[in-house]
Amino acid sequence: MQIQKHLLLSPAPGTQRELLSLHYGQTGGPKAYIQASLHADELPGMLVAHHLRLKLNALQAAGRISGEIILVPMANPIGLSQYALHMHMGRFEATTGENFNRHYPDQIDTAALAAEPELGSDAARNVQVLRRELKKAVTAAEADTELKSLRRTLMALSCDADIVLDLHCDAQAVMHLYTETPCWPECEALARYLGARVTLLAQDSGDSPFDEACSQVWWKWAKRFEGRFPVPQACLAVTVELRGAADVEHGLAEADAQNIIDFLCHRGLISGAAAPMPAAVGDARPLAGCMPIKAETAGVLTFLRQAGETVKAGDVLAHVICPLSGAVAELKSPVDGLFFARDFVRFASAGMKVAKVAGREALRSGKLLGA
């Protein structure tokens, strides 16, 4: 294993943060990139990365890593250092207010123009050329703030990977995944190994989150070069939601790490017989069918249903109770679906989104992700 340090742009004299990446195997073959806690206050991924590191160290010592695996055990040193009044504030960058998992730069046109003279009828060769030019464009892109330098560094490490796993968590939730619709055929195996209850699919959900910045270059290039040069969907990029924020336990993390190892073995990046693929415990549904549950009034929030339950339209999921008047507002599911995530905050402000139900029909449009 090799350790690389990547210096971020200094935000002030005397201050500079760095990103650490762990490199296993050899370049030139299939590549997987895994990062933890891009939202720096979502900690289950860091513990999973710890167990992945131990397992990858042992696999490397045994000579079983067939491809290249990059592990970034803590993907956001900026957010990790942000505290206000003893509260960790790791989702939004304090200077700009921007979500750390949004607004990844687009180098699709730059790479396509540079690669086009070398493209031809060989799809595998086209993938090599496009990856090479994409990495050049990402690395050469301007980054005039610390946040932009973090985004550029993460993209430079991941943009040429076959598999990208971005480890996150929700507030209180079951295991679930987000990926782009063209990625689902390859993502289904990952969902089964991880025991995901639902995989939420969209094709460009809006605001360019990290996983989509890695995967959407391929379907956009396929569309651009359609009828001239074959371009496959050469990157499976997935946001892995490791249940809830308090699920930071060795038992869960070790099992999740082993499931990721089993998936990488299934994909050929680790030699040896792959563990049998488990039966599916969930399915894929449109992200546009994921319905937010919103509190219309302020008050004490108490849930009547647990994350992971199947609910019907009209089922009461929670109460919002006004402490002054005693009025009780019912929060109902708008659709039949899986009640897969809920907030851990127990006082709701008016208009606050407090839970999510994954339905089977696409009912929303526009930007599909939350803040």
UniProtKB/TrEMBL annotation:
Residue ranges annotated for the Succinylglutamate desuccinylase/Aspartoacylase catalytic domain, each copy included: 29-263
Entry keyword rRNA-binding: no
Presence of keyword Lipoprotein: no
Keywords, in A-Z order: Hydrolase, Metal-binding, Zinc
Transmembrane segments: none
Coiled-coil intervals, chain numbering: none
Protein name: M14 family metallopeptidase
Annotated source species: Roseateles albus
